Amino acid sequence: MSTSPEFWTVADTAKRVAAGEIGAVRLVDTMLSRITNVDRELGAFLATDGEGARRDAAEIDRKRTAGQFAGPLAGVTIALKDNLVTKGVATTAGSKILQGWIPPYDATVVEKLRSAGALIVGKTNLDEFGMGSSTERSAYKKTRNPWDTSRVPGGSSGGSAAAVAAGLAAGSLGTDTGGSIRQPAAFCGVVGIKPTYGRVSRYGVIAFASSLDQVGPIARTVQDAAILLQVISGHDPRDSTSLDLPIPAFAEAATGDVKGMKIGLPKEYFQPGSGSLDSEVRTALERTIKALHDKGATTVEVSLPHTSLALPAYYIVAPAEASSNLSRYDGIRYGKRAEASDLLDLYCKSRGAGFGPEVKRRIMLGTYALRSGYYDAYYKKAQQIRTLIKNDFDEAFTKVDVLLTPTTPTSAFRFNARATPLDMYLGDIFTLACNLAGLPGMSVPVGLTADGLPIGAQLIGKALDEVTMIRAGSAIEALGGLGDKRPSGIGGI
Amino acid sequence: MPTLTRKEVEEIALLARLHLESEEVEAMQGELGAILEHFSGIASVDTTDVVPMTHAVPMDLPLRNDVVLPSLPTDEALRGTPKRDGDLIVVPAILPGGPE
Amino acid sequence: MTELAQLLEDYEPVIGLEVHVQLATRSKIFSSSATAFGAPPNSLTDPVVMGMPGALPVFNRTVLEHALKLGVATSSQIRAKSRFARKHYFYPDLPKGYQISQFDEPLCENGHLDLILNGAVKRVKLQRIHLEEDAGKNTHVGAVSHVDLNRAGIPLVEVVTAPEITSSEEAAEFMRSLHRLVRWLEISEADMEKGQLRCDANVSVRLRGEDRLGTRTELKNINSFKFVQNAIDHEIARQLRLIDSGGRVERETRLWDAVAGQSASMRSKEEVNDYRYFPDPDLPPLVVDGATMATVLRTLPELPVPRFERYQKLLGVSADDARTLVGDRALADYFDAAVKAHPGEGGRTIANWMLTELLGALNAANQDISQSAMPPERLAALVVLVETGVISGKIGKEIFEESYRTGEEPAAIVERRGVQQISDEAMLWSIVDRIVGANPRQAQEFQSGKDGLFGFFVGQVMKETQGRANPVITTDLLHKRLGR
Ligand SMILES: [Mg+2]
Ligand SMILES: [Zn+2]
Questions:
Q1: Domains in chain C and their CATH numbers?
Q2: Concatenated DSSP letters of C355-374
Q3: Which chains touch C (3 or more CB pairs under 8 A)?
Q4: B96 close to C (CB below 8 A)
Q5: Cα(C277)–Cα(A372) distance, integer angstroms
Q6: Which fold does the domain B6-43 belong to in CATH?
Q7: Which DSSP string do the residues of A44-57 spell out, in sequence order?
Q8: Whether the Cβ atoms of residue A145 and residue A153 lie closer than 8 Å to each other
């Protein structure tokens, strides 16, 4: 194990800090100086909070010296996607319209992390309001993929995935509306979990599409992701869609044992032509399936017949809800206001200038779909298709315990490679259905392309059964897909 | 499915209170048109008697007890407000009475 | 130009009302900030009320209970599963850019509200009663407007009538009845001056006998009972004159200016509204469970109109008195308590005493019934003393006054003051006999036809008995003694 903390796991960091092997302040200083060195080129962070992190670290050291327990994540550095609201720390959602806004409250997940002793080092870059799959749609900066700086880190939680991959934080939180945790995790060679809808509170999560959004962890190991999920899960009376159910022992689920597990392979995800599945990705998945079989799992082909409808359904539901959620950004109570002579002008100009092109596109699309006379043909139809998609999953889960698919059709693409919005949308085909159905999903690295780019496998669990999914994920991780490779594109590691 | 006219794009932009430059309107017309075209297949999906899925997880609305918690101090609530007059938010004059 | 009255013979007005009622809760409908009236601007907010990024709504249980009371009291169908929807429009008093309301699955439908109109009960159908959040308040100051969000998020019910109210009087009476009902149910203060009860009216006219509705206009900002009537009258006249002069009514929203006594069009130039309703993904369906419903039913008081009918049919109270008694729940409850304390069938008499003596005393002291110094049981006891002849009605009023002032029991006052009525014929005969004997000249003049002198003898008897002589018996005996 390295004596330098950059790539320590969450579990290891917590253990070492608790044992007094390293002071939290020293640890956080090391991480902050690494951020200073590396992030200039990487661009994962929109803002760091060195002052806050050091203050909290000092408190952890004080508690430890006094013999008090400082929390299960004491000393663990965490980066937060900048659509998670942080009290007293600027939160932008990657948008100019929120530039300068200082929230007066903490998101529930942030509260939970803080009280577990986590050290929040900063806020990470994202596609504006989570709308994108490359982090190129941030209004602020470009985030590079640490494995190859000419490529995108994925998105929209690109900053969170890149920061963890590059060793700038032990773990991070992202949000996932249509794959925004899993896809960047796959592109950056890390683990990302999107929990069952309702498992993690959305209070303080800047809404993109309320019926699809979920917060989840990104980490370098399955167990780390499970530990973070453990901390952020649970009922929150401030979120009316939060489930009031006990939290299973996620952190203990990463056993790697898949003996007797029935793993479903949805044939629609492997068909030739399905999103032009890259052959290297296909090969990596096939290798994984075989290895799982060798470990005692049964693999079964299943069918999710409405798979091809997930993309249109998603790109109607998500923009419709987004157009509504983003109505509040008007430059009146907070955020940026444009100079205007009358009220109509004030609205149109503030919003016209404050939102980037992709956000405007989705607001337009969503507004189109919700207009009276169009509602039935679009929004309602899409929600009915959601039911069909959910039914497909229910049917499949009568036969299998978990589903295995590629996370993305390809590995990380180059900047500006996806020329049209539709091209970008088509890259999300494997991750969307999971959100539409409210199911848990995760991405685990399974290998590298010939060019040295990470490939991710996606696991989709039954509703509320993250445990089986995590168990399968840890088995895949144990296959050692990335070998001992680390991102080589940046930071001179 | 109908193609999107320029006028329609402008109407939607007004409804959404989005100022679009002329070239943005044009681009939007093409891009949204292409997206809607790509989605046109959903029209032929038979969804007779299919209940729309409004929520990802079926549950009932939780009820909160009628308890008052402290409000945000006014200065905190209006900390980011671009234009204030004392404790009031200022906007350009609007017609009294409001929308319907 | 045709006279208005003549036009009204040919045309019939059709009115539908949309009434917003603020529900009396401590905290807001979707968050825990307070609902007080008159607090400093923007002091009653939180991230939810301000529409801040990341804030989420959580529904207030008391709002449901209040709304269910109104639903049951109006015999509405209650939806076991109703839904919140977002209604989108941009306005500075609407922080999120949408109002959380109910659209195609409202809590209550197909109810009715009974009015007491000209002594009879008139039923007005309600299309729906739904829940929603109030907006903030814009104030217009020259070139700018000021926004105060304290009111944003206060719970509202919107009561929508069927378009079948046919006169401004009926519309105003609807408002009074709804006002009385929500106060009766203790779910709203419904103070129109504080904007707790607000009315929009949809007004159209059509030829009598025609089935189809005419083009309607929507009148907004009619915030007093008087204005409801004036604004609607004014609008009916405006539409009729327009039609009479060959014009056509246009679908528009008009704003009532109470000072000028007229309305003005406020058609917005930009666009037609499209609210883009859709189910709020932040709020799962609102489910009314059996336990909640049972509590509502158990705690629902007897309603004003059923009481109005009961008072007349079972207690013999006049329609006018019954209407006054049910004008206020505390008044009706007082009456019922007094009737209950009365051993016989004293309804009619109790109503008289309440509405004259008790209300007189309360009015004089500028108090309401809840502040009455006389409990209903005591008023009933006083009424019994009068009815059984223990005291005369006249003495009764004095006893009332003293008892109200001192709190002493009427019987005790009667006893202490010795003012029991004298109905003993032998005793009264001796007094009558003595008085007639002592006034021979007056007796003689009366006997020779001077009728007016009879009152003189009654007066003498009353003076002698300090008003305690039973007037009926006294009259009878005087006639006997005087021989005519
Ligand atoms: Mg209305
Ligand atoms: Zn309303």
A1: 3-296 (no CATH), 302-417 (no CATH), 425-482 (1.10.10.410)
A2: IIIIHHHHHHTT--GGG-SS
A3: A, B
A4: yes
A5: 8
A6: Histone, subunit A (1.10.20)
A7: -EEEE-HHHHHHHH
A8: yes
Instruction: Look at residue A38 and give its three-state secondary structure.
Output: helix
- Of the listed ranges A192-196, A276-280, A374-378, C231-235, the least confidently predicted one is A276-280
The residue ranges of every structural domain in chain B are 6-43
What does the alpha-carbon distance between residue C108 and residue C132 come to, in Å, rounded to a whole number?
Answer: 13
Prediction pTM value: 0.94
Q: Which domains does chain A have, with CATH numbers?
A: 5-263 (3.90.1300.10)
Query: ipTM score here?
Result: 0.96
Least Cα distance to A375 among B14, C127, C98, C85 occurs for C85
Kindly list the residues from chain B whose CB atom is less than 8 angstroms away from the CB atom of residue A352.
18-20
Q: For A376-399, how does the pLDDT look when each residue is reduced to its tens digit (9 = 90+)?
A: 999 999 999 999 999 999 999 999
**Amino acid (one-letter) located at A269:** Y
What is the per-residue pLDDT for A50? 97
Maximum C-alpha span of chain C: 101
Distance from residue C200's CA to the centre of ligand 1 (Å):
8
Note the pLDDT of residue B99. 47
Taking Cα atoms as reference points, which of C318, C327, C317, C310 lies closest to residue C347?
A: C317
In the predicted structure, residue A138 carries a pLDDT above the cut 50: yes
B55: which chain A residues are within 8 Å (Cβ-Cβ)?
A: 211, 241, 438
How far is residue C12's CA from residue C211's CA, in Å, rounded to a whole number? 11
Q: How confident is the model at residue A481 (pLDDT cuts 50, 70, 90)?
A: confident
Q: Does B47 touch chain C (CB under 8 A)?
A: no
Are the beta carbons of A388 and A432 closer than 8 angstroms?
A: no
> Over 90: is that where the pLDDT of B1 sits?
no
The residues of A that are catalytic are 81, 156, 180
Taking residue C215's Cβ as centre, other Cβ atoms within 10 Å add up to: 13
Strand order in the sheet with C252-257: C77-78, C108-117, C120-133, C155-161, C11-22, C197-207, C217-222, C252-257, C262-265
Distance CA B33, CA A200 (A): 36
**Pair type for strands C77-78 and C217-222:** unpaired
Q: How far apart are the C-alpha atoms of A49 and A56, rounded to whole Å?
A: 11
Say if residues C335 and C369 touch (Cβ distance below 8 Å): no
| Residue owning tokens 């949000």 | A175
Instruction: For the beta carbon of residue A199, count every other beta carbon within 10 angstroms.
Output: 28
The yes-or-no verdict on residue A1 having pLDDT over 60 is no
pLDDT beneath 50: ranges in chain C: 269-270
Cβ neighbours for A329, distance < 8 A, ≥ 6 positions apart:
A95, A97, A98, A335, A350, A351, A354, A355
Strands A77-81 and A171-176: parallel
Structure tokens at C334: 């007082």
Asked if A206 has any chain C CB less than 8 Å from its own CB, the reply is yes
Q: What is the pLDDT of residue B97?
A: 45
Measured CA to CA, the distance from residue A12 to residue A232 in angstroms comes to 19
The mean pLDDT value of chain B amounts to 91
Q: Cα-Cα-Cα-Cα dihedral of C334, C339, C343, C348, to 10°?
A: 130
Q: Report which of C57, C213, C205, C192 is spatially closest to residue C132, judged by C-alpha positions.
A: C57
Instruction: State in Å: Cα C215 to ligand 2 middle.
Output: 21
pLDDT of residue B23: 96
Kindly state the percentage of chain C with pLDDT values over 70: 99
H/E element holding C207?
strand C197-207
Weakest-pLDDT range from A35-39, A356-360, C462-466: C462-466
Chain C residues in contact with A91 by the CB 8 A cut-off are 53
Distances (CA, A) of C133 to A254, C59, C130: 46, 11, 10
Nearest ligand, CA of residue C101? 2
